Amino acid sequence: MAKIRIALCDDHPIVLSGLSNLIEAEEDFELVGTAPDGAAGLRLILDKKPDIAVVDISMPMINGIALARRLAAEAPTVKVMVLTLHEDKAFLKQALEAGVQGYLLKRSAAENLIEAARTVSSGGRYIDPAVAGLIADDAAHRRRRAGGPESTLDLTEREADVLKFTALGHTTKETARRLDVGVKSVETYKSRAMEKLGLKTRAEIVRFAATQGWLAEL
Amino acid sequence: MNIARYLARIRSRGVSIRVFLAALVAAILLPTLVVGGWLTVRSTAPERELLVRTSQSKAGEVVADIEDDIAAAKATLTALTSSQFLENGDIESFHRQCTEVAKYLGAQLALRDPRDGRQIMNSAVAWGQPMSSGNPQQALDAMQEAIRTGSSTVSNVFFSPTLNKFVINVGIPVMRQGAVAYFLSVSIPLHTFADSLQGAALPPNWVVSLVDADNTIIARSDRNDLAGTKLYNPEVVKRIVEDGSGFATSRFGVRHRWVAHRSPSTGWYALVGIPVSELDAPMQRALIAYGAVGGTFFMLAMALALFFSDRVAQWFGEMGIDRTPTRDEFRTLFESAPNGVLVADAKGLIVLANEKLENQFGYPLGELIGRPVEMLVPERFSAGHRSERENFSLAPEFRAMGAGRELYGRRKDGSEFRIEVGLNPIATSSGDFIMATIVDITARILSERKLKTALTERDDLRRRFMQAQESERLRLAHELHDQTGQTLTAALLELKALESQLTDGERLRVRALRKSMENMGKTLHRVAWELRPASIDELGLTSALANYVSEWGSQYGIEADFLCRDPRLDSIAEEKRTAVYRIVQETLTNVAKHAQSATSVSVVIDRLDSTLRLTIEDNGPGIDAEAGDETGSKSRGGLGLAGIRERLTLIGGELEIESTLGAGTTIFARIPLDSEKVTA
After folding, report:
1. Which CATH superfamily, name and number, covers B193-280?
2. Is A212 on the interface with B (CB under 8 A)?
3. Residue B125 near residue B162, CB atoms below 8 Å
4. Do domains B337-438 and B539-680 have the same CATH topology?
5. How many domains does chain A have?
6. With a CB-CB cutoff of 8 Å, which residues 62-121 of chain A face chain B?
7. Nearest CA to A27 among A100, A94, A114?
């Protein structure tokens, strides 16, 4: 059985050596090389074509996500796994968009790196359990939003106007002045329209407005 | 009058309100006094009439007396004609009889031959004595008339040589057998009439004169010596006789008003004269009295007018009655104006300048009058000033001069100072003028500059403070996250490697240690993230915000929606990027603290032209936006909003808050990206 070939990329020497030790301790793993920054890492990986490239996100020269994008294009056979201190969903999202197969937090690396590497190696995707919850929330959110309204047929002209001005970023006062009605009326029209369309927040109003082409001027 | 001279005189002489008020009083009083005088003169007319009527009745009395005398004389003559001596031709006896009658009468009786007028008998000549042969023409005329008419006649005045006196004759024809046989006449000396004139009891200075048809004075009350003389001015008397009355000046220079009355039986006239001075006396007396009273009254009114003139103006002011200022007040106002004021004519010549202005520009009193206003303008501007002044004259309006530009004044010594000029066109019937108010703003400019500097410094300090705070956070976050995080990771890996060399029991303890170190890493991350998320700098603001909003929502269980419609949000300047992130962070913190009942929050970012618009809405309980806005209280809207406002102010942004109690709060932040250099 062929060993799983791994390349390591981290700008922190102690972390790098710790990771190396961890991998070398495993029988079925082979460390093909380490690099202290993104640029060196790119050269190394393109040269050795390992099965898995474990890269840090915060690195000098080329950061881990950029590196993952380059590799996806230039060495599609290499599976990229990011190892990072960042627990932000923002980073996770970016990493997934860059095409990484694994997202592992450094603090759980000692415990989970080997398991993650095996999962990725066998074609799976590994997301650190600590951040996996975030992506689940987000997905649920997106699903909820997907069922939004599509038509304004149910709206009166005034309700549509109020919704439009609200989406354009006007204050209630400004909207009231433009439509020549009272502030209270604007609030009433707005809440009625939102109820009809099932919109809950201003952001949803703006999204809906965008689908209606109301925001062309923005 | 030229208004320029008028205005200049206000200053140079200061005509008093007294003159105006006095003139007013005079204008009212003088016609009144004239009318009063006229009425006074009119009121004396009845008295004058009374005098005239009295003179007329006196004349009538005199004529009546004369008529009586003549009638008495005629009666005597008639009685004598029937004397038996005359009937018998006994002339001697008749002479005797006549002599007695004549004595009784105090007159002379004469009997004449009607054919030649020869005297047959004369009571004044003893019987047998020769009689005067000379017959005065007047006596003969009267005789001829009596013979012709067959009735008695009265002669004009003549000198009787027999009596050696002026006399008149009253004669009667004596008829015998149908013919005139004799002519009997009585000669009455004129003094007889003078006596009867005296009896008329005229007021002193009045004159009564008796004149015969031949203009000979029979008697005159004041001058007996004139009896028998001709009138001094018969033509005038003739006119008076015709008119019944008239004025004449006597040979003694006294002017009288005469009234004439004719005696029908004699053809004489009684003339009664009142000296004009006496006739006019009542009017003159009244006028003198009126003049004295009226004059006194007038003087008093003028004195009061002058005395109260100043106070009247003052009282008007105190009573709040609108009035134009008096010249004195105008002058005081003009001079005490807090700023320099000048008036220039259409040609730009100064016609009036107050002392303040002269002080401002360092000119001695009055030296600016008549000089062009350009001498107050620095030479480099004077040509431009001239043309602008001409433009202003074409379309005058109230306005500030040189709006938006810095204006300078030039002192006499050539030094310059910053001024502000208000222009005020004055259109008068004598031409157009411009009033300019000039304020020396040197001190204001200085303090404005100081204030501006201070404000700029303050904002700089705040900005530097925030930047320092931000960079400190960044440094801390970096230290905690990267440095400490990496070290922790290394330590964890080391422990993991160590585990293989340990016994099972030891391995369990190390594993527990690793667990707590992992938790420590998690905490470190959290702290660092809150200080400043690495994603702002590494992934951009949009991702960082999306993440923050989502994390915040998970943490507080509030549905939090983030929408960014500005694809260039990541490229705004570092300072604004931080501000936007912090504003969202602070607003959501506020919501978490104060609007826990909110179930949804949305953050929308878009860009309209070059304004970045950040709208954060919650459906919480709402705040009183008006009250909570700037009070700085610890309630919602207090510290949180103040901090947000401060951040916005430092980057030139604005904040607007709309809130409905029970329905939520919306915060509108507007950030200008104008002078923005895109940081790629």
Report:
1. PAS domain (3.30.450.20)
2. no
3. yes
4. no
5. 2
6. 63, 85-91, 93-94, 106-111
7. A114
